[in-house]
């Protein structure tokens, strides 16, 4: 894999949008992609589970790809309320986010669970976007790099490759807060992640995309995307409107 991976900009819609708004948003992003034509960036939208099929239809043929926000570790069975990676793939998705800090906090997901979810994604031929990132307290204590290193060690499957796994560095204190890590902070962590990925996965570690996430928007995207070892973004709030999401895609080109 090349050391200069094709960027990915992924919109995480979280628990937002009823059907009409979701369809309008999907159609808006699809229209922007269609108008842009062939671009040197993968574009992904990750709606809530129940909208996957509709959004799949809304973005069909536009170049916009579809992902989910988590998956269960099993294929099927008695797991009320859960959705398997196979079910997600069956809706036309090609990606799934695992280990988002909101899942880690709200549902007690630890590194071992996140790794099992990423392995489930691979079993269903989905790309896994593995999220890691330190809390504000951990950064203030000078532990950001150690936390990220330990989360990577525990959350990444041994079979991860540049073709099936993406890492998203999302400092918890920057998610949904309007506070963005500065480019020096981002560079330090992304360089560290790259070193760890190369040490563990060899050449694939060079090709793996490392996304930044945390209050990225049109105003700061150019500077963040220009940082070495930033290969795109995982976008929350700004992904809820095509007009605020698309400039971030353009910043990645
Ligand atoms: C996220 O939830 O992954 C995220 C980065 O959110 P926001 O862009 O709103 O900070």
The counted number of beta strands is 8
Assign the CATH topology of the largest domain.
TIM Barrel
Shape: globular
The total tally of domains equals: 2
Task: Specify the biggest β-sheet.
Answer: 8 strands, parallel, barrel
Instruction: Provide mean pLDDT, rounded.
Output: 96
In helices, the fraction of residues equals 40-55%
Q: What is the CATH homology-level superfamily of the largest domain?
A: Aldolase class I
Poorly predicted runs:
none
Strand order of the largest sheet: 1-2-3-4-5-6-7-8
CATH C-level name of the largest domain: Alpha Beta
Query: N-to-C terminal Cα separation, in Å?
Result: 19 Å
Strand fraction band? 5-15%
Total number of helices: 11
Encode the helix/strand succession as letters: EHEHEHEHHEHHEHHEHEH
CATH-defined architecture of the largest domain: Alpha-Beta Barrel
Derived structural class: alpha/beta
CA gyration radius, whole angstroms: 17 Å
Ligand types: phosphoenolpyruvate
Describe what this molecule looks like in 3D:
- With 253 residues, the protein is α/β, with parallel strands linked by helices.
- It folds into two domains: 17-34 and 46-64, no CATH class; 82-237, Alpha-Beta Barrel (TIM Barrel).
- It contains eleven helices and eight strands.
- An eight-stranded parallel beta barrel has the order 1-2-3-4-5-6-7-8, surrounded by five helices.
- Strand 2, helix 2 (52-59) and strand 3 (65-68) form a beta-alpha-beta unit.
- The mean pLDDT is 96.
- The structure holds phosphoenolpyruvate.
- The site of phosphoenolpyruvate has 13 residues, from strand 8.
- Phosphoenolpyruvate (PEP) binds next to strand 8.
